[in-house]
Amino acid sequence: MTPIRTLPAFLLLFLASLLAPAASAAITQDDLLPVDEAFVLTASAPTRDRIEVRWKIADGYYLYRHRTGVEADAGFAAQPLQLPKGKAYRDEFFGDVETYRGELVAILPGRPASDTDSVSLKIKYQGCADAGICYPPQTRTLKVALPPAAGDAFVPLGGGALAGNLLGRTPQAGMDALPLPEDQAFAFEAIAFDGNELLLRFTPARGYYVYRDRTSMALEGAQGISLQAPRWPKGKAHRDEHFGDVVVYFDQAEVPVPLKRDRADAVIATLRVTFQGCQTDGICYPPMTRRVKLSIPSGTVTPASTPDMPAPASVAPLPTATTPVDDAAPDTTTSAASLAPDVERTRPPEEVLARNPRGTSSLLVALALALIGGLILNLMPCVLPILSLKALSLAESGREGGDARRRALWYTAGVLVSFVAVGALAIALRAAGQALGWGFQLQQPWVVGLLAYVMFAVGLSLSGVFAIGHRLAGTGHGLASRRGPVGDFFTGVLAVVVASPCTAPFMGVALAYAFTAPTPLALLVFAVLGLGLALPFLLIGFVPALASRLPRPGAWMATLKQALAFPMYLTAVWLLWVLGKQRGIDAVGLALVGLVLLALGLWWFQRARFAPAPLQRALALALAVSALVPLAMLHRLPAETAAAPTTEGHAAYSAERLAALRAEGRIVFVDMTADWCVTCKANEKAVLNTPAFRELLATHDAVMLTGDWTNVDPAITAFLEAHGAVGVPLYVLYPRGGGAGEVLPTVLTQDGMRRAFERAAR
Q1: Which among 157, 248, 374, 743 has most CB atoms closer than 10 A?
Q2: For 646-700, how does the pLDDT look when each residue is reduced to its tens digit (9 = 90+)?
Q3: Are 578 and 446 in contact (CB under 8 A)?
Q4: 43, 144 contact by CB (below 8 A)
Q5: Residue 8 binned pLDDT confidence (cut-offs 50, 70, 90)
Q6: Whole-prediction pTM value?
Q7: Distance separating alpha carbons of residues 354 and 132, to the nearest angstrom
Q8: pLDDT of res. 2
Q9: Strand pairing partners for 62?
Q10: 3-class secondary-structure state, position 336
Q11: Which of left, alpha, beta for 374 (phi over 0: left; psi -120 to 50: alpha)?
């Protein structure tokens, strides 16, 4: 009884262990070492034809191999830089890279001129902290003394070679690869072209580009005047490592923005524009906000039928840098005769740390949504069969308060541990370069097959084919139906396992936060999701009034238990259907053979469990275990190719197809789905596969692109990441004529879709 009595304390300690690091995980710029302390740089020349550049790397920090370079001046004919092999690493921004920790020694071989006694080095490098914060690219200039040539007088150097001196941080002239300050890299101007239109001009420097769909704008201080949709010129399709397929401008872009006017008189207003851009093959800048004070002359009142510009999507920071905006920048009045805006400036890139700040308010919102999402998860069809088992178990156990509380706590422990374990696995796999989200395990055919086995075994147990006693720990319902802590704990585990195909409303935001937050905060979000899932049974266990409403035990329970077997069989059938979508009919055949072996082994074990010959029981168990052999053969089968949509206005997703349709100015609806996603299938049945939705597409001359994520697909993964999604479903509606796509709710309705298409058509 001691473990049961101490379980509440265990749960409190478990949650406290998650909360404690979370309180200290809000890393800020002040928590980091200065870059020259994190990466202590020195250089020396042990011989005249060999220069060693050394970085002493602080604990918890690392350098990138591919971002490291050394150039010597004309007095030293350098050969290629020699770098040691680093540790292979899958980086979310740079892909497959190598990193260095502790110390890095780079060798620059070469031949100095006969009269050269020192060499100036231009050294470039970039590194990050394990806290998830990266420094921008660094450039240093060091001067290294060379040993005297043979025959020259020996000059003592204080017992060793002279280390290079840090001369300064200012890049030297001619270093074109260094990033410019953002106001030089991206010029922005705006004028009131007339009383009914503004003209915006974006001018990236040579070697830089600006994103079209990472731009938002607003007019401040002009009551009765608002912006309509900007008319972007044709840009260049570009494959971006952060946002996927995007449209960018390498050259100057002039963007007319019509005004909607409820008043005709002249006004003084401030235009606020936020945009992003990058250096080609270099760093990406944080969102830049510029404010221009405009003198807008009198104009024509806009007819009431003309819509305002839809609210732009928020511009999320790129992973390279984020800086605060100086709100104290003064404004200047700009008219058609002057294109000299006063803008909000940020610090130059070399003074900016790349970080993604997450305030306490964001954490609290994520936790609240996680709790609500986990609670709603109880109503999803994939979880209801297991919850029915739990309710039956509680009713069967009676209404004793102490017993109900203990069972609720053990069930909650199983849910919490499982949710945190799934979250930790997903975080670890993403850190290793596997861009995975919620439900990722169902992209693996052997996992789908194993879940089908578990559901089938639960059904057999409910039907009375076998029962697992005290001699066998077992799985599935054999554990879930056992009395005592083990049965309650594994009921919680099974509930989380079958919940993985489902995504409840509000879960998406919480999971998106979890997959980008520091690990302690991420695990806390997963724990709160589990708390939401377990909350109904916690309430039953701790609120006597609710427990008293449970039905009284009786003979009816045997009938109900047998009836609950059939939802389990149907769940197994659905999982076999998913397996067929992944690996074809041969995979279904293998799994069916395995199910027959499993059923035969469990039936034989049940008949032999009371027999005096233990050999029969051992053979029966061996037969049941042999059912895993067909699952092991699934990896040999080729993945099935998703069938291309055949209806008019509907096509398979590809980045090229999306870019082409957007270039034509069409409305595009992107549907990212998977056969194992229960929410996706519910939306298809209720909305997407209906005549009303097909009519909606035809009315707006829109095209639907469907991406199938049933199997791992890097192109779809890139699209999900570009939109901050952690799994499917994901629905994005791109408006006519360009502009940022609108991410639609996880659960669709006909009215919601109609309103969204009306916004996209404006």
Answers
A1: 374
A2: 677 899 998 888 888 988 889 999 999 988 887 888 899 999 999 999 999 999 9
A3: no
A4: yes
A5: very low
A6: 0.46
A7: 9
A8: 38
A9: 128
A10: coil
A11: alpha
Tokens encoding 628: 């895993």
Sequence length of the chain is 762
C-alpha to C-alpha distance for 479 and 481, rounded to whole angstroms: 5
Residue pointed to by tokens 């899932």: 533
Asked whether the bond before 729 is cis by omega within 30 degrees of 0, the reply is yes
Burial 187-201 (b: 16+ CB within 10 A, else e): bbbbbbbebbbbbbe
Nearest alpha-carbon partner for 77 in 46, 45, 110, 104: 110
**Would you state the structure tokens that stand for residue 130, as one six-digit string?**
């394990």
Beta strands in 65-117 (DSSP E): 69-72, 76-78, 87-91, 95-100, 103-112
- 231 has a pLDDT exceeding 70: yes
Task: State the sign of the Cα–Cα–Cα–Cα dihedral 242, 246, 249, 255.
Answer: negative
Checking DSSP bridges between strand 95-100 and strand 127-129, what pairing results, if any? unpaired
Can you tell me the distance from the alpha carbon of 101 to that of 86, in angstroms, rounded to the nearest whole number? 9
Query: Both ends of the chain: CA-CA distance in Å?
Result: 67
Q: Is the N-terminal amide bond of 256 cis, ω within 30° of 0?
A: no
Instruction: Give residue 153's region: left, alpha or beta (phi > 0; psi -120 to 50).
Output: beta
Q: Residue 504's pLDDT is what?
A: 56
State how far the Cα of 463 lies from the Cα of 603, in Å rounded to an integer: 11
Residue 616 DSSP SS3: helix
Tell me what the pLDDT averaged over the chain comes to.
Answer: 75
pLDDT at 502: 62
- What is the mean predicted confidence (pLDDT) over 286-304? 83
